[in-house]
Amino acid sequence: MVVATLSAMDLTYPTEAESFRKEIRTWLEENLPNGWFEPDFQLSDDERREFNENWTTKLFEGGWICAGWPTEYGGKGLSLLEQVVLNEEFARAGAPFRADFFGDTLVGPTILQWGTDEQKAEFIPGILQGKIAWCQGFSEPNSGSDLASLKTAAVLDGDEWVINGQKVWTTQAQHADYVFLLARTDPDAPQHAGISYLLVPMHQPGVDVRPITQVDGTAEFNEVFFDNARCPKDNVIGGVNNGWKVAMTTLGFERGSSSTTGYRRFLKEWEQIVGDAKRLDKNGDPILRDRLVRAWEKVKIMQINGYRSLTDALNDTHHAALLGACNKMFWSEAHRDSMELALDVLGLEGQVLTGKGGAEGILPGFRRGRADYPVSDTQASFFFSRSETIWGGTAEIQRNIIGERALGLPKEPKVPA
Fold it and tell me: What are phi and psi of 324, to 5 degrees?
């Protein structure tokens, strides 16, 4: 059976970054539970509950939540490289960050970059303290990869915007207090020029959230319907009709500080697949061994691509869009293939529902199964991998971007209406 590990890249970080790494490592060793770094360490249910209750407080006290934000807004003012090191050390330790991706990583930094002083004062403290939950209202039923064709409209009525339209695949909308929303505010302007970026309260008449239940019983995706919903006139970020540029900033924050750690979840799944192959005594099959090696090679490429993205950001060489298209297409298709491999390894066992399900079955990404369809973690990952080549820009759209921007190919002809 092939045995492989992903060793650290042969890279040298600046001295100050390595000093900061030691600071983070020391803090983690002092604040994680005793024995955390020991092999096969596990918390009991009571210990896990206590850890979850106290860990966010410790993160706040250490200053690690939104640590890249300016100090005047509660962060540490970390540079991009320091944020990368912070992510690397938490990933190395297997220590969780606060799971508020939309607030901490997307809309918060966007408000800091584009917002007025009044908007920062209104929203940033609530994001930092975890008092405002967010969701993202970009995609629509007919405007996913072609986001600029969105139809949701916002019309100014006195001191408020009146919003009508529909968003789809809106993660965590059922729990959100606000949605950062793209709406068309000038129907006569060119597609990209007539869009505004609005912060819209979710708990109001005219906002209808409808869960989209997946085959495994999870429902973190939603449809959201806006029927004369309202938000204050001053809740436009970056200026009226400048929403496209602001939205591209938001999407850029999805990459960057996690560029060198994103591959780790795929490595962990690969190790699980290898473990299942050994357990089921399939590790002698030469065809399966070859597929496992190829899957590991793809994880290694994801790691290398992450360093390419980091280098681009540090050198400000402005290849983020092209690198993002290449990386998104590669990892999403690689993950889909690896999860097909995982079920092939399991064979008929993979058709048996072996998860806990219900409230007890908390799956990757906080995905909750239902009691009558208790999928395992591997099965949940398989189902989710089917969507990854679609959300965030389909693989077909990513190929168009690469063809046009990297290879100089002509634009794909538009289909006549």
Answer: -60, -40
Residue with tokens 């009525």: 157
237 and 321 together in one domain: no
Whether residues 303 and 399 share a domain: the answer is yes
The CATH number of the domain where 159 resides is what? 2.40.110.10
Catalytic residue among 18, 254, 360, 396: 254
Range of the domain at 136: 132-243
**Token reading at 156:** 């100014």
How many domains would you assign to the chain? 3
Q: Is 333 a catalytic residue?
A: no
Cα distance between residue 24 and residue 46, in whole Å: 27
- The whole-angstrom separation of Cα 356 and Cα 387 is 23
352: left (phi over 0), alpha (psi -120 to 50) or beta: beta
Span 100-145, pLDDT tens digits: 789 988 999 999 999 999 999 999 999 988 889 999 999 998 876 6
Q: Are residues 228 and 277 in the same domain?
A: no
Minimum mean pLDDT range among 14-28, 220-234, 357-371: 357-371
pLDDT at position 390, please? Answer: 83
Is residue 118 in some structural domain? no
In angstroms, the CA 121 to CA 105 distance is 18
Predicted confidence at residue 1, as pLDDT, reads 33
Q: Over the stretch 189-233, which tens digit does the pLDDT of each residue have?
A: 998 899 999 999 999 999 999 998 877 677 778 999 999 999 999
The answer to the question of residue 288 being in a domain is yes
Q: State residue 144's pLDDT score.
A: 67
